[in-house]
């Protein structure tokens, strides 16, 4: 069985603010589990003019107790993130996936950011949970665990991005006041 989690959200910020905050979202007080973020590729697509980035993120966290019997007490996870920004259409797509523990569970997140008619930013996310463990009913239990944790994780992610957007606006306002 593969489980999907779908979510939609709107930020009362313009696309430029949301994308700038997204690119600079770590560190923030809602993401203390993120240990490091490294950009490993950054380029402009010659055909579309899109900005394309690949990042490597190291996060801490714990797997559920029922799985530690198989893998031990794993506390770190490596995540790959791909980002594509089209400034003409004011859209950003992101894709994240864990690079380790893939035999246990693969979590893939597909997210699309776009400007709405009010000039704010809409977000649509789909997260896919799939486990490679087919023994003792653990596959369904692990996928369900990932699915249930997603709502909590998404809430923290949204709050963290809002925190960074507020800081972006504060810095922008301070800069404008200096220029006046």
Q: Can you walk through the features of this model?
A:
It is a single chain. With 180 residues, the chain is an alpha+beta fold. Helix 1 (15-23) packs across helix 3 (138-179). The N and C termini lie far apart (59 Å). The radius of gyration is 18 Å and the shape is elongated. 32% of the residues lie in helices and 39% in strands. A seven-stranded antiparallel β-sheet has the order 1-7-6-5-4-3-2. The chain has three helices and seven strands, in the order βαββαββββα. The mean pLDDT is 90. This is PRELI/MSF1 domain-containing protein.
In short:
The chain has helices at 15-23, 65-71, 138-179, and strands at residues 2-11, 34-44, 51-60, 76-86, 91-98, 106-115, 121-130. The chain has 180 residues and is α+β, with helices and mostly antiparallel strands.
Please specify the SSE layout and strand pairing.
Layout: E1 2-11, H1 15-23, E2 34-44, E3 51-60, H2 65-71, E4 76-86, E5 91-98, E6 106-115, E7 121-130, H3 138-179
Amino- and carboxy-terminal Cα gap: 59 Å
Order of helices and strands: EHEEHEEEEH
CATH architecture classification name:
2-Layer Sandwich
Report low-confidence residues grouped into runs of 5 or more.
Answer: none
Count up the helices: 3
Major beta sheet, specifics? 7 strands, antiparallel
Helix- and strand-based class? alpha+beta
Note the beta-strand portion. 35-45%
Radius of gyration: 18 Å
Tally of strands: 7
Instruction: Please tell me what the overall shape is.
Output: elongated
Helix proportion range: 25-40%
- In CATH's first tier, which class applies? Alpha Beta
């Amino acid at each position: 069985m593969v489980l999907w989690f779908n979510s939609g959200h709107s930020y009362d910020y313009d696309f430029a603010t949301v994308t700038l905050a997204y690119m600079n979202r770590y560190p923030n007080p809602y993401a203390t589990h993120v240990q490091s973020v490294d950009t490993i590729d950054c380029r402009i697509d010659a055909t579309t003019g899109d900005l394309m980035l690949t990042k490597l993120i190291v996060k801490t966290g714990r797997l559920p107790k029922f799985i530690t019997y198989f893998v031990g007490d794993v506390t770190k996870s490596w995540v790959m993130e791909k980002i594509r920004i089209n400034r003409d259409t004011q859209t950003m797509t992101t894709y994240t996936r864990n690079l380790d523990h893939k035999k246990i569970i693969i979590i893939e997140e597909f997210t699309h950011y776009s400007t709405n008619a009010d000039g704010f930013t809409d977000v649509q996310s789909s997260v896919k949970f799939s486990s490679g463990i087919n023994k003792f009913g653990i596959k369904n239990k692990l996928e369900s665990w990932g699915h249930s944790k997603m709502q909590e994780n998404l809430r923290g992610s949204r709050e963290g991005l809002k925190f960074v957007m507020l800081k972006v606006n504060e810095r922008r306002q301070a800069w404008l006041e200096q220029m006046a």
